[in-house]
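Field log, afternoon session.

UNIT: design team B
ACTIVITY: writing a sequence onto a fixed backbone
BACKBONE:
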């Protein structure tokens, strides 16, 4: 099924039969020393919720940490005392998104970071409401990593300020966090993104903006514009597992 989408007065065609899934399944990656995902059949008396042991259905309990066990989308409640639900922050689910590939650079501290210089160069100051950052090199190992204790790459403060200045509402990246793994609890880039001064949102906070972490952008996906469907389950929590899906936008002739 094809649809036409107009963006910045340009008409694009989009084939909805060719989705590109950016999510990493829960349990394939881990960070921040989160516990492993646990799945086990519900047990009550003689009932065991597993077809393998004679139950008519599989009826499983699942334990996981949204932030530490896979692709997830978080809202402002991630860093506020009120812990606003992602369901209140994310109320639209289709966006124009730009994929950019960036080279990591070494900071004075020795950390690997995404710099504002590299981001500005790749974006050409032209960013829609959603930005998807793919870090290079783009190894398939990103889909099966335990980042805990490895001090993985993150964004520089200036890079995050640039993202906010350009009006990005939905930021997606293939890293465990926009902030340093151990930053002493500052979560500075999170606060910049949502415009949070303490631990409480106010009328100046960007409460309808989201951050999606631990995605994987396949090498076959070219940098450029896409239609994105950001899928999330209905869970009343500050962060939930998510499934960002892209659809390539092709500029129509004579548009």
């Amino acid at each position: 099924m094809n649809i036409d989408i107009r963006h910045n007065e340009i008409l694009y065609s989009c084939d909805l039969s060719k989705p590109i899934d950016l999510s990493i399944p829960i349990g394939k990656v881990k960070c921040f020393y989160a516990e492993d995902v646990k799945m086990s059949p519900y047990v009550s008396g003689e009932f065991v919720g597993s077809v393998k042991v004679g139950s008519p259905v599989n009826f499983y309990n699942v334990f996981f940490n949204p932030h530490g066990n896979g692709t997830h989308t978080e809202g402002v409640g991630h860093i506020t005392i009120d812990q606003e639900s992602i369901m209140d922050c994310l109320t639209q689910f289709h966006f124009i998104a730009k994929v950019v590939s960036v080279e990591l650079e070494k900071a004075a501290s020795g950390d690997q970071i995404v710099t504002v210089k590299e981001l500005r160069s790749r974006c050409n100051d032209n960013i829609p409401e959603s930005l998807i950052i793919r870090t290079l090199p783009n190894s398939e190992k990103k889909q099966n990593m335990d980042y805990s204790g490895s001090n993985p790459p993150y964004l520089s403060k200036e890079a995050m300020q640039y993202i906010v200045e350009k009006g990005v509402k939905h930021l997606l990246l293939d890293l465990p966090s926009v902030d340093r793994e151990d930053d002493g609890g500052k979560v500075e880039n999170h606060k910049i993104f949502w415009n949070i001064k303490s631990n409480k949102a106010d009328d100046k906070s960007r409460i309808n903006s989201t951050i999606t972490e631990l995605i994987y952008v396949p090498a076959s996906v070219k940098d450029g514009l896409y239609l994105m469907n950001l899928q999330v389950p209905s869970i009343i929590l500050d962060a939930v597992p998510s499934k960002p899906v892209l659809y390539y936008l092709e500029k129509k002739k004579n548009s």
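LOG NOTE: The chain has four helices and 18 strands.
NEXT ACTIVITY: expression trials, pending approval
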